[in-house]
Amino acid sequence: MRLRPRTLTSRLALLLATLALLAGTIAGVAATFGIRAFLMDQLDNELHQASARNITLKSPYGDSDHDRDNRGGDPASNAGLPPGTITGQVSNGAITELVVAADLDGDHLPTAADRAAVQKVVSASDPRTVRLPSLGDYRVLTSRTPDGAQLVTGVPQGRVDHTIRELIVLETVVLAVVVLLVAGVGAFAVRRSMRPLQHLATVARRVTQLPLESGQSRIDVRAEELREPTEVAQVGRAMNAMLGHVDLALAQRDESEQRLRDFAADASHELRTPLAVARSHAELLREYTASTQLPEQVHRSLQRITDETGRMASIVNDLLLLARLDREVTERREDVDLTWILLQAVDDARVTARDHHWGLTMPEEPVLVRGDEEQLRRLVGNLVANVRMHTGEGTVATCVLERNGDRVILRVHDTGPGFPPELLDQAHLRFARARHRQESIESTGLGLAIVQAVARSHDGSLEITSVPGDTTVTVILPVSPQE
């Protein structure tokens, strides 16, 4: 499996190190070849000087008494040549003599393999590199004396090769140090230049943690302004402009929602008394006309007026409750036993919805929640009523109450048709109802909205999962601190 750097900082540092390695390698190779060429030129100069000296020493027409004294009358003498220099004579294309100028022990005769190696280049007129099996690499040059004799002169190439090897080792060490320094310094520089981006990421994470879905939400987080003409500074300014725009939009949304809530609360409050009066008069008329011979249509109309005014009064009360919950107004805070409330709600459902099969699972000991008892009764009642109103005959409904650590979990499960897919994510919104059920089911669409509002006012939450035949509504509340 290939390991790839995960962060941009490590990638850029690796890129810098790679570029440094590539540039250093190219420079090192070029320098090595250049220095080797220079050293080989020097070696060739030494070779030409040694060849000229060899011609002088081997020529029977020495140009000075000093040369003749050095030769001592021996045509094979290598006096005056650098140590390690090889000299030889060629006769009819074959080497007849090949000796080495030694440091201490005098001249040494090369082996037959050495002669064979030199034999291959005697016809060349320019310096050639020859590897002698017993002596190593030599730079060899063939030349002629004034009397026409052909001589071979060679100088050892080991010094050049040794220098190049040391140079390569030195370049490798220096290149490794440079690459490590470039990687370290590059990582530091890149990390430092990336700090503004890290700050932007921190700002973005803080924004995602803000409760923007609730009312009175504000985005008071801003990125640090950089007065630089860099791309990072431009991103920071663009992010601040975007956050400011979103903050303004949220403020306008909150203001609009608040006006709507105020209107609903004021309208509901103003409608309570007229509705109560209208319902009272309708009931009074029903009592007076109960024994009167009036058309059946009149009796049905009076009954309809009574029912609808009652339904409107229920909607008004629900809207007033939601308005109080929106303002986070909780009437009372006390320890409330949810087991007793749930038991009563299920018992009532078994009477009012006999065509359903009701199940109840809860602990024997009380489960206490700190909150408003009336609101919690409304929460449990709405959950049970939701099953009763939106499921058909024979539906199995199971209510489960349990404690999990510092949380109380209330689940209401049913085997009904479930929520329509388009409604599932909006079921907790006000007046949320499936279109194909509005005429057949008398529902205000406020039941689960009240459940969620009550749960939130008690620091809890609402969760809904639903597929046909398997629907679960879960309310999670904190346990009372007294437990």
From TrEMBL:
<keyword id="KW-0902">Two-component regulatory system</keyword>
<protein>
    <recommendedName>
        <fullName>histidine kinase</fullName>
        <ecNumber>2.7.13.3</ecNumber>
    </recommendedName>
</protein>
<keyword id="KW-0472">Membrane</keyword>
<dbReference type="InterPro" id="IPR003660">
    <property type="entry name" value="HAMP_dom"/>
</dbReference>
<keyword id="KW-0418">Kinase</keyword>
<keyword id="KW-1133">Transmembrane helix</keyword>
<dbReference type="InterPro" id="IPR003661">
    <property type="entry name" value="HisK_dim/P_dom"/>
</dbReference>
<dbReference type="GO" id="GO:0005886">
    <property type="term" value="C:plasma membrane"/>
</dbReference>
<keyword id="KW-0597">Phosphoprotein</keyword>
<dbReference type="InterPro" id="IPR036097">
    <property type="entry name" value="HisK_dim/P_sf"/>
</dbReference>
<dbReference type="InterPro" id="IPR003594">
    <property type="entry name" value="HATPase_dom"/>
</dbReference>
<dbReference type="InterPro" id="IPR036890">
    <property type="entry name" value="HATPase_C_sf"/>
</dbReference>
<dbReference type="InterPro" id="IPR005467">
    <property type="entry name" value="His_kinase_dom"/>
</dbReference>
<dbReference type="Pfam" id="PF00512">
    <property type="entry name" value="HisKA"/>
</dbReference>
<keyword id="KW-0808">Transferase</keyword>
<feature type="domain" description="Histidine kinase">
    <location>
        <begin position="266"/>
        <end position="481"/>
    </location>
</feature>
<feature type="compositionally biased region" description="Basic and acidic residues">
    <location>
        <begin position="63"/>
        <end position="72"/>
    </location>
</feature>
<dbReference type="Pfam" id="PF00672">
    <property type="entry name" value="HAMP"/>
</dbReference>
<dbReference type="InterPro" id="IPR050428">
    <property type="entry name" value="TCS_sensor_his_kinase"/>
</dbReference>
<keyword id="KW-0812">Transmembrane</keyword>
<dbReference type="GO" id="GO:0000155">
    <property type="term" value="F:phosphorelay sensor kinase activity"/>
</dbReference>
<feature type="region of interest" description="Disordered">
    <location>
        <begin position="55"/>
        <end position="86"/>
    </location>
</feature>
<dbReference type="Pfam" id="PF02518">
    <property type="entry name" value="HATPase_c"/>
</dbReference>
<feature type="transmembrane region" description="Helical">
    <location>
        <begin position="167"/>
        <end position="190"/>
    </location>
</feature>
<feature type="domain" description="HAMP">
    <location>
        <begin position="191"/>
        <end position="251"/>
    </location>
</feature>
